[in-house]
Amino acid sequence: MRLLSGSLWWGPALQPNELYPGHTQEKVGSDTFVLLLFGHSSAGRLGLAVEITAPIGNIGFHGQWTLMLAPVRPLRVHSDMKIGQIMFLVATGPVDMYRGKYQDATGPQPSQYWRDLLKTGTS
User: How far, in Å, are 14, 64, 94 from residue 100 at the CA level?
Assistant: First the structure.
């Protein structure tokens, strides 16, 4: 998993206490396996948390994975830098395929949590 080439990561250093949206270069997904996203250990040793909110990929999701990059110290991240890895786990039993709001994602996706609130009538 790499940051997309030609992205804005050649700019100023990422700053601590800020959250930076990014995405995988690759489109990932499976109709068979559960995906787990982990930060690459070298990125962690530099002080970069790669995914802090949603490390589990639903069976049936296909698209670019939005990453929430959270540095703990000033850090420069370059395009094509290996920052994460995905593990594929075998699922057993019946599976409900993902048909959610982030299907076929391209690029970083903003939160669509408001859609869940509309479904429940919560405001």
Answer: 31, 14, 18
